Amino acid sequence: MSYDDVEIEDMEWNQELQAYTYPCPCGDLFQITKEDLKLGEEIARCPSCSLYITVIYNIEDFLQDSHNPIQPSKQQSLSVA
Amino acid sequence: MEEEKKAEKRDNKNDQIIWSWGAGTEGQLGTNKLQDELLPQLIHQPSLSSVSHLACGGAHVIALTSGGKVVSWGRGNSGQLGQGEVVNNSLYPKIVTSLDAYFITHVSAGWSYSAFVSDNGCLFTCGDGSFGQLGHGDYTSHCTPFEVSFFANQHVVQVACGMRHSLVLLKDGSQNQVYGFGSGKRGQLGVSKYKIKSINLPEVVRAFEYAEIVQIAANGDHSAALSADGHLYTWGRGFKGFEDVHSPQRLNSSLNFSKATLGWNHALALTGEGEVYMLGGNHLGVLSDHQSMNRAKQIPVDSREANLEKVPGLDGIKISDIATGSEHSVIVTDNGEIKTWGWGEHGQLGLGDTSDQISPITVNCGHDLNEATSIRVYCGSGFTFALTMA
Prior knowledge:
Number of helices of chain A: 2
Number of helices of chain B: 2
Radius of gyration of chain B: 20 Å
Largest interface: A-B, 24 and 36 residues
Strand order of the largest sheet of chain B: 2-1-28-27
Structural class of chain A: alpha+beta
Number of strands of chain A: 6
Shape of chain B: globular
Largest sheet of chain A: 3 strands, mixed
Distance between the termini of chain B: 24 Å
Order of helices and strands of chain B: HEEEEEEEEEEEEEEEEEEEEEHEEEEEEE
Helix content of chain B: under 10%
Oligomer: heterodimer
Radius of gyration of chain A: 13 Å
Distance between the termini of chain A: 31 Å
Helix content of chain A: 10-25%
Low-confidence stretches of chain B: 5-13, 287-301
Order of helices and strands of chain A: EEEEHEEH
Mean pLDDT of chain A: 86
Shape of chain A: globular
Largest sheet of chain B: 4 strands, antiparallel
Mean pLDDT of chain B: 90
Strand content of chain A: 25-35%
Strand content of chain B: 35-45%
């Protein structure tokens, strides 16, 4: 069972791992690569434990421009919805 | 071996013993090894001979000594150890020398960052600042503790670090006692009824005009505060089955709470009478049942007391301390036993296996803890520490 549903904008791009990551409750990181996302994969796994999360994203964002990958937005200013 | 015996003797002489267990592949257990431990390990570290408090984060530990010094170890890849350099992991506890000029009285460890409070009320933060959780007015990370200038003219007494957000408690703050900064998407900052993505400077939590707050807590995307008259307030990500709340909500309960701790999907609250209650979790702090969570998402906030359950199986035994990891719980009984339950995949329950438990099970430390005058427990995301004083 998926541990959580996480939006891609809440994940962080990890240069070293070449993957989008999100904290796993075991202390390691859930990870998913851009290649996986382009294939429509929505499960990000933790290499250290059995848990995984479901990534919520729009596949078109990753298919459109493979040379200019979308970074999860980290808004610098206060945003009020 | 000889070294170990000497260290043990020294520990005994100081009447303090430290155990750790659970996830350990970042060196966070202080065992000088990069491996998980399924059973309590006795820690032999000369630099930890007079620890008064521990704060455990995602995979690092900040220890406070009775002399006001700070020692850190474990994962350091975001600068969360405060040792002036970014290290993958630090196997050996090291003193945070840049705080030497201060007498530190309170510490907290978040997912990948840390915070320190000095006796003169200064707040310092270091580690990952990507979400503004260091409170310096930017999104920069620091590998050395850096004073939060926002509080330069105020007296900070406590700080609580979650996954990506921080809370601060001021001394004599009256209406402006509690501040929040960092990620706010799930309402965990409590500074606005609107959805806030993140803020990098502290903003006041306007909910405590008529309450004196004595304890704050943060973990995952949850926040909590406890008032002097024993009321528990929670805000942020909704506990199992409940929607997110963007401002502190007082739990509708006649119980008088004395301590509260948070996990990523549950909370434990200890009453002045030594009873322990749990909020959220799938019955007992095990992994949340995602399907039923989705089904029940619309339960209104004001019926939350129905979500508060007394931890069963304790048969009236009084509880003296509580701690919560991301998905596990630890309690100390009045008769000197440590009990754990919840997620056990990394050995964080200390029961010798990787099974989950749905009710409290006694941990065998190989020592008679009954002799100890004080046992305190601390949890990181997937690991546990116990500190005993004879």
